Amino acid sequence: MRSPAFRRRTNVRRYRARLAAFGVPMIALLAGFVFAGSIELALTVPASAQSFTYNPRPPKPPPRPVNNDGKMLVQAVEVDYDYNNQRVSAVGNVQMFYNGTSVEADKVIYDQKTKRLHAEGNIRLTDAEGKVTYANIMDLSDDYRDGFVDSLRVDTADDTRMAATRADRSAGNYTVFENGVYTACAPCKDNPKKPPLWQVKGARIIHDQTDKMLYFENAQLEFFGVPMAYLPYFSTPDPTVKRKTGFLMPAYSSNSTYGYAVETPFYWAIAPDYDATFNPRFTTRQGVLFQGEFRQRLINGSYQIRGYGINQLDPGAFAGQPGDRDFRGGIDTKGQFALNDKWVWGWDGVLLSDYLFFSDYRLAQYRDPLGSFLSLPTEAISQLYLTGVGNRSFFDARTIHYLSFSGSQDKVPVIHPVIDYNNVINHPVLGGEVSYKTNFTSLSRTTAAFDPITTLANTNGLCLNASADPLARIPSQCLLRGMPGTYTRLTAEAQWRRSYTDPIGQIWTPFAIMRADAISASISNQPGVSNFLPVGDTEAVRLMPAVGLEYRYPFINVQPWGTTTIEPIAQVIARPNETFAGRLPNEDAQSMVFDASNLFAVDKFSGYDRVEGGGRANVGVQATTQFDRGGSINVLFGQSYQLFGLNSFAVHDATNTGLESGLQNTRSDYVARVNYSPNRTYTFSVRSRVDEATLNVNRFEAEGRASFDRWSVSMLYGNYAAQPELGYLTRREGLLGTASIKVASNWVVSGAARWDLEANKLNQYIIGAGYVDDCFVLAANYVTSYTYQAGTTPPVLNHAFMLQIGLRTIANSSSSSGSSGIQ
């Protein structure tokens, strides 16, 4: 039988007790003081609120949270019960677990009379979500409404941090941090006592848990411990808030036409599934440009609508241009929705008062993401689409309207729709693979789009001496890039292919292709059009069957230093002549580049409007060496031969596609390619096309890339012979270089430039530098780009400078300036 004295006081080593009455208020209070509905902050730093550093003493391993079904597990060196004073104390390496939350401290006392909890020494509270609170002293009431914490440090899983000399909680809603410091940057690992990249100090930081807002009084922003800005007062949503109504950071810009400008975005979190942003831009020369955006996310997708409008104060700044008007504006929208796991549909839409509105005001939709470094969009796309992707099939249907930024809107087609469907049958047919594809295209254009290709045509804008005979070699002064009227084509193609390997290792691949096109064209009789195409209504059916055989015989040689494979390749194709060659519109097959990449393509045209006909043989040899110590080299050399019938690449069509491509003769130009990768760092490539008769180089490209830990660089040299029948009257030669250097752990400098060697000038370039880490972004870019306008007006060279600054969880600001001049 235990004595009463023994029951009143127990002193044991590593004593564990389940204390339901003791545990619920204590843990709930500790967890609720800082975290209940609140700021999701945390910290692994000393109590000082002057700067952030790591705690020099390694923290204890966090105790494993335990779900105890509403009961508490207490572990301590000593547990004392004072029934007379109604106090319960746990002393020495105290560890408490309750419903996924744990507390560590040197000493914890709960006074049942005053209903207050007092914890002292090396307090560490970890809740079920991983948030950690450190303190030296905690004193809380059991209703969570008031209390204080001395030397508070807080840290969360999303790496936001706060420290304060003291925190007081009142009214169950407000927490006041005295001499508080806030940052979203981790302390420096190499120098833990070094201040973080940025931090915000405040004489008082008030957290309103109901509104989930942080209010800073007498705040200063520091970078590396050096004060950079002072604000007597500012507020921001606490880091738990992903969407909060309020003003966002302003953005600044300048331009010669609208002057200096500042944008003041206001974000409105209307509901959990939709919101809006109002972003007026106040300009010194043109007045206020109103901008607004509405976004909504539904269960199967999302959409957004943006609107713009300005009543210009000084339209004369755009004299002689479409912007010389009082009101300018526009609207654009996009959305995408999933029908199921394989099908999506969506839209993009743009409507503008004039085609230069986006570019004149440098709106976000016009800015290039700089993926190509040296280009800006020349058009905006409005489209409605439906896309489906299967395991071995693909479907895409869309109707498209292009809004040209050049002003030649009547020369741009409207795509009624374009529909593509590809499928590979999942079971063999006659031992081979069968695939098929279809394409339906329908478009209309108001005015013919001529492209002058001679000096005379550029001078007078006329198309003279054009030949109506597609087989004649009389040069035209123009190309008909787009026919006026309506054009519809339906294409269906099926292919069978099977590979055999004989006993000596030869690979034989027979194939058969059947293609059919149904074409309907109604071409307007506009001046000059009849020189290229028959005007009026045209109906045509075009069939193109083809059979062929591809032969490969790889020879493999193994040496101590590596393995070499030499593979002769021959391909023979038999098919009839291309019917209606050059007499039908060509809208999607105007690009023709013959090189080693398409030497063995059965049809070398890039689109459906032209189809290669006649018998042809493609021959070449490929050699690949794989070195044992890494690295490889691949070489391909070959030529194409027109065996019989009409050579489709020797036919004049509306765009002269195929002429001067290297395939227009019976024996094509030689094409070659060399790729060399000595290791993962370097890559070199050389591509060339050499005239078969004269051995003159008609096309040459040399490219090198290098990528190291801290820097990467690429250089492309291009040299292209004149192609007068395509509008290139002189040889083109130039360099395109890009580079990116990581000058420090988080600093990157990058740039790109294009140098026209014929004109001996640097015509476009971009230079940028940026700092990026988990809590801070600083980026600056200087960009040049050309804007092309209607008529014979020379292109306008634009210069723009863009600056962006971002502080994670607090602000993201940007500014830009630009100017332009005719070059």
Automatic annotation (TrEMBL):
Q: Which Pfam families match?
A: LptD, LptD_N
GO CC annotations on file: cell outer membrane; transporter complex
Oxidoreductase recorded as keyword? no
Q: Which domain of life is it from?
A: Bacteria
> Which Gene3D superfamilies does the record associate with it?
Lipopolysaccharide (LPS) transport protein A like domain
What is one process in the GO biological process aspect for this record?
Gram-negative-bacterium-type cell outer membrane assembly
Quaternary structure (record): Component of the lipopolysaccharide transport and assembly complex.
Q: Which family does it belong to?
A: Belongs to the LptD family.
The name this protein carries in UniProt is LPS-assembly protein LptD
- Species the sequence originates in: Bradyrhizobium valentinum
